[in-house]
Each structure stands twice: as structure tokens, then as C-alpha cells.
Design a protein that fits this description.
Number of helices: 3
Low-confidence stretches: none
Largest sheet: 5 strands, mixed
Radius of gyration: 15 Å
Helix content: 10-25%
Mean pLDDT: 96
Distance between the termini: 17 Å
Length: about 110
């Protein structure tokens, strides 16, 4: 089994829609630390699980310095962002989205 991990940081704003009162309902920003985990039994024709540049293009290139509410068609919680990133990357099995030093959301396939 081959595994690759890509880490990156994106700066973005978001405003959450919640069923309870929270300061996160106000537009605010984070420097999100994103970690993407991929694995495969085989390598592609280039000898890779997935190209690190492709992961960066699909995630950082799409989300960095944006208003996530305008870019994404769902409530941009860290959990939902993690799932969305997973769905964009071939062979991805886990994504960590850290929005602050003490808050991390993880999406992982069972």
C-alpha cells in the first residue's frame, strides 16, 4: 500500500448557519491547516498515488483567499469542508481541517 500526505494552509472567511446562537454566525476568517491523506495499492503511469500539485490546485487553488459561503454550496463548517475536499481528490481516504490550534475536524472513510 502506497500512502501520500499533503499539507497546506488556506486563508478564507465563512459565516455559519446554526440552530443555536454563536459568534460563528458572524462573518469571520481562519488560516485553515488542511491535511489530505491518500492511498493506493498501485501507482499511476507517472509513479504516483496522486500528484501533490493536483491536490494543491483542487484545494488551495479553489478555496484560498475566498469567502467559503460564496464558493461552496453548503454550510461551510470544518466538517463539511473536510468531506468536500475528500470528494475532490482521487484515492483520498482522510482529510483533517484545523481552523484553530484547538479545533480540528476530520473526515475519514470507514
Amino acid at each position: 500500500m502506497y500512502r501520500v500526505i499533503k499539507k497546506m494552509e488556506i486563508s478564507a472567511s465563512h459565516q455559519l448557519t446554526l440552530d443555536h446562537q454563536s459568534k460563528c454566525e458572524t462573518l469571520h476568517g481562519h488560516n485553515f491547516q488542511i491535511t489530505v491523506y491518500c492511498k493506493s495499492d498501485t501507482l499511476n503511469e507517472d509513479g504516483m498515488v496522486v500528484d501533490f500539485t493536483e491536490i494543491k490546485r483542487k484545494v488551495h487553488g479553489f478555496l484560498d483567499h475566498t469567502d467559503l459561503n460564496a464558493k461552496l454550496q453548503f454550510n461551510p463548517t470544518s466538517e463539511n469542508i473536510a468531506r468536500w475536499i475528500h470528494d475532490q481528490i482521487e484515492h483520498c481516504y482522510r482529510v483533517d481541517v484545523q481552523e484553530s490550534a484547538n479545533n480540528i475536524a476530520i473526515y475519514e472513510e470507514e
